[in-house]
Each structure stands twice: as C-alpha cells, then as structure tokens.
Amino acid sequence: MSKEKFAYSIDQFKEIAQKTLEMAKHLGATSAEVDLNEGLGSGVSVRKGEIENLEYNRDKGLGVTVYVGRRKGYASTSDLGEDAISDTVKASLSIAQFTAEDPFSGLAEPDQLAKELRDHDVYHPWDISTDDSIILARECEQAAFDVSSNIKNSEGASVSVQEGQFVYANSNDFMQGYPSTRHHISCSVTAGEGDQMQRDGWWSTARCAEDMESAKTIGALAGKRALAKVGAKKIRTAKVPVLFESTVSAGILRHFVSAVSGGNLYRQQSFLEGKVGESIFPDFLSIEEDPFIQRGLSSASFDNEGVRTKKRAVVTSGKLDGLFLSTYSARKLGLTTTGNAGGSHNLFVRSPGATHDFGDLLKMMGTGFFVTDLLGHGTNMVTGDYSRGASGFWVENGEIAFPVQEVTVAGNLKEMFKSISAVGNDVLSRSSFQVGSLLVESMTVGGD
Predict the structure, then answer these.
(1) Residue 4 pLDDT level (bands cut at 50, 70, 90)
(2) Given a cut of 60, is residue 436 above it in pLDDT?
(3) What CA–CA distance (Å, rounded) separates 446 from 448?
(4) CA distances from 159 to 132, 219, 225, 226, 423 (A)
(5) CB 86 within 8 A of CB 109
(6) Residue 403: beta bridge partners?
(7) What's the rounded Cα separation, in Å, for the pair 69 and 71?
(8) How many other CB atoms are there within 10 angstroms of residue 274's CB atom?
(9) Taking a C-beta distance cutoff of 8 angstroms, is the pair 423, 349 a contact?
C-alpha cells in the first residue's frame, strides 16, 4: 500500500469536532454529537494467476446529530470545509424540526462517559506495496492449486490492507478518537468437474499482518476443504446430533447476542425477552465480554456514544447475566446502558475444564451431521425457530464418512442453546466472537 497516510491528524479532527459542536449550539441545538472518520487502503485479487481487481480507497466523512429538546435530527457530509459543515449542521437542525418528540432520545449521561482510555494496540499499518500484494495473492492461490490436480478452477485470492481513524465528540464534554487497522487474506477454489464441482475457501483477518495465517496456509486450507467436498450427496431426513464447525458456530451464537440486544427487546421481538437470571445454556457454558483485549477486533474503551466499556460476564454457568444496551434502548427498557451502542465487543465462550479437540467432538457425536457451511436466513427472532440450508459431512461411529450437500438443519434456538453438549477448543481468532465447534444433542436434518 502507498505510504501516504491520513489527510488529517487526530488533533485536527478534534478541532473540527469542537467547532461543529459550537456551531450546533449557536444555531439552536440543545445538545449535539459529532463523528468524524477517515479511511484508506488497497485491495488486490487474482484469479488463475491473473490480476482481476486492483482497488484503492480513500474516504472521509462527518456526521452530526442534534437534539432540540427531545427532537432529533441527523445529517452527514464528506466535505470537511467550513461552509459544508455549516450546511450539514443546518440540515440536521431542519430535520429535527420535523421529527416527533421522543422522551428517550438524547446523549448518554455525563457520569457514564469514559474517563480512562486504554491503548488496545489496534493500529498496525501494513506497508506492503501493490506489487507485493499481487505476489502474495498469487502465492495464496497457487498453494490451493498445489493441493491436487483435481482442483480445476478458482474464484480468486485476495489481499486487503485497510487503516482508518475517527473522533467522536458530544456536548457533554466528551471528545476522543484513535486510529486502527484491519488486514485480510482470502482464497476460494473449485474442485471436481461436471455436476460434482464443489467450492470452498479459507480466510484470515487481523489488526496486524503478522497475526494472520500465512498466504500459503490459507491457500492450502482452501484447496483441501474444496477437495474434501467432492462426491457430496443428500441424506435421508433424520433427527440426529449436529456438530457446528468453529467457522459457523460464532454465527449460531450471534443469534443469542441479537436476542438479548436492546432493539429487539424493547420492540418485543426476541425469544429471550425477560430471561435475565434464567438458565438458557447448559451450566458448563459461560460467555464473557472483554473490550480490552490487545489487538482485539472489537476492542474499545468506549462505545459509539462515548460510554465506557467494561469486562463483564454475559452468561455465567448457563444463566443470562447481561444484555447489550445502548443509551436509547436502555431508557426504553427502564435500564442502564451497558456500553454497547454499536454492538458487542470481544466475546469469549468459556467452558471450564473442557479440552475437547475436534476428534473428541466427533467421537462424542458418534453418528450425526457435521456442518461446515450454512446458507439462507431462516431465523425467526420472535419465536426462535431456526431453519438453514447446510452442507458438511455425515459422521458414523465418530469418523467422517462422506460429504453432504443440499440439506437443511432445523430446530428452535432456545432448545439448541440448552442442548449444547460440548464446546471444542478449536477456536479461530479471525472473529470478534471466540468460540470453538459446538455439538448440539439433536436437530432435524432435512434431506430426501
């Protein structure tokens, strides 16, 4: 990537934010908040060794939210000139005049704002040239082709280098921001031929390039995964144990996060409404939120409203202890913000004493379905009903027997959470939700 860096410094962002807040107050806002951001980066992708895409990105923006009493208005601009910012503030105030009063709107309370800020080591620029990015992408793809001559085609390999910075400020005397980075390498290939062509891939992402898996490792895993799917077939409909690979298990538990997040709760659109203090997982499973992990993908000392974050137990020995609330959703529910405006922070599934590796989980399952891919969006957050297209492998006597495709897995999330019988230690570090493979006692697998 080019060594050219940000057009603005954090201090310059703070000066702009302060002037914007003063302008909003002068024009009639009771209170206001400002978000300034800038991003830059590059991305390359190759397919069969040839350059397919070469992209550079650079953008910046300012968003301002004003409150006139309990009326709210928002406007944004990509022009950080004084006239453009003035027009943006005026536009947000104009919008506020036409919105209904909302007794729950407004800034976070001053005593909830972050005072102590930690360095989470999230800024690691990757000074890799475009030519070297292309070489790395080709190396990744070639590693996939080298797995087998039966890997016939490629959907490409890519290398992405991104960095950004932001400042958030509000009229309750909060103003903070910092830079961060996120880099990515991926590969996807096709194995087999005719009606037995199968696609799969692998990827790695991290704040720091040295924390990613190597390009060759990513390519080789992509090739092996695609090759393993060749010969996939349907199975008969059955109710069997289901093992969700660590690549998809985080997605299962994100439904839990959604169900205990403020928006769904105050709209009464959650199957876990009113469940705080109750057991929703088996007693060997706990979930912890830790915003202070070094180089964490979701580390932060404050949320999108400046509210301080904290390390906390969300689930303890199966019991629901915590929700994910912003200032607005907390007020709607008569509760206090949890510092989760903008979403959850680093989440860790803990299973004390459990050291199950993948082989252990297969043996514990005995005969059943091992899921490696999920398709579609068949989740009802009100009832918890769950049905997704899936592919993976049929397992017999604790051993993988053959690949499976074109089936569905169905159940109810409340029952699925309670019937988790084991958690694997095969945790992937490429997500903000750290969890290994999950073994569920019984689900309906729909096939022929």
Answers:
(1) low
(2) yes
(3) 7
(4) 10, 12, 20, 20, 32
(5) no
(6) 393
(7) 6
(8) 10
(9) yes
